[in-house]
Specification:
With about 300 residues, the protein is of the alpha+beta class. The chain is built from six helices and 16 strands. The strands form four sheets. Strands 8-7-9-15-16 form a five-stranded antiparallel β-sheet. Strands 1, 2, 4 and 5 form a four-stranded antiparallel β-sheet that branches. Strand 4 and strand 5 form a beta hairpin. Helix 1 packs antiparallel against helix 2 (about 35-45) and helix 3 runs antiparallel to helix 4.
Length: about 300
């Protein structure tokens, strides 16, 4: 890990922390989902960074990967709201999340997610098996009568990569992976009063570049040019809107790109029993000397 990357990773984390706090303050009954997302994106730009992925606001039983389509909106009322923010600062990533309970009925979920995150952060050190992080998270869930979401996890972070190794599990998955000097990763507990498993459903609004493929239509070719500007990071259908293409044309072009495998789409992740879900997340840097930095705390 060179000095520049370490400094940029820490800077990305600080920006992500500030954006998370800013976005959390916007989530109130009567607020527009789209207006909140727009303000978050504006804040990221003002702080000299770019989104590492589209700001995510998942509601109730939806754990992650949710955005309304560009011609839709949601007005917040009494939902349990998960805000997941990713920042790219010269490609270094800060990734963090927080949950807001507008219903006032699910504080135990929020408390468990934050408690699990804090407990996991405390044990991070070089040589620690990642399964131990998962065990701490699972134990906190059980102490509150809840389940972690077993098929969601924390993940490694790298330059222009939001998901890479190692996997940071939310339960003891028997992994033999250990924390090593130079690692950057996110710890990401999800808590639910449901089954603890999610499935993917619905039309994706979030995508990422997969591989270079030949495409036929001018629309698909134009979209690929714009997609390359995201440096491989995930993007939303909203990010492709401009004066030259209608929403219908963009959707048609995306279908072509999905069909040939040029991009991947990510639909909403829903708890199998429609249990309510809370999320907490921070980013971690372990430097070459083994010092641990929680960059978004």
């Amino acid at each position: 890990m060179n000095k520049t990357y370490k400094e940029e990773f820490i800077r990305a984390g600080r920006i992500a922390k500030d954006v998370r706090a800013f976005g959390k303050g916007l989530i109130k009954p009567g607020a527009s989902y789209n207006a909140v997302i727009a303000q978050i994106n504006q804040k990221i730009a003002e702080l000299g960074a770019r989104p590492a992925f589209p700001p995510q606001i998942a509601l109730n039983e939806v754990a992650a990967h949710y955005l309304p389509q560009p011609d839709e909106d949601i007005i917040f009322s009494d939902q349990i709201v998960k805000l997941d923010v990713g920042i790219s600062y010269n490609g270094a990533i800060g990734d963090c999340a927080v949950t807001v309970d507008l219903s006032g009925r699910h504080q135990v979920l929020l408390d468990a997610a934050e408690e699990a995150l804090a407990a996991a952060e405390k044990i991070v050190k070089v040589g620690l098996p990642v399964r131990e992080i998962g065990k701490v998270i699972e134990d906190v869930a059980a102490s509150h009568g809840l389940s972690p979401i077993f098929n969601l996890s924390g993940h490694g972070l790298a330059r222009y990569k939001v998901h890479t190794s190692p996997i940071i599990p939310n339960y003891d998955n028997q992994s033999t992976a250990v924390i090593k000097p130079g690692m950057t990763f996110a710890i990401e507990p999800f808590m639910t009063n449901g089954k603890g498993l999610i499935y993917e459903a619905g039309e994706p609004a979030i995508f990422s570049f997969a591989s270079a493929k030949a495409v036929q239509s001018d629309i698909a070719k134009a979209l690929l040019i714009k997609i390359k500007s995201f440096h491989g990071l995930p993007f939303a259908i909203h990010d492709l809107l401009d004066k030259d293409l209608t929403l219908a044309q963009i959707r048609k072009g995306l279908r072509e790109l999905l069909k040939v495998g040029a991009i991947e789409g990510y639909a909403a992740l829903i708890e199998e029993e429609n249990g309510m879900v809370a999320q907490a997340e921070n980013s971690v840097l372990v430097d070459e000397k083994g010092a641990v930095f929680i960059t978004t705390r």
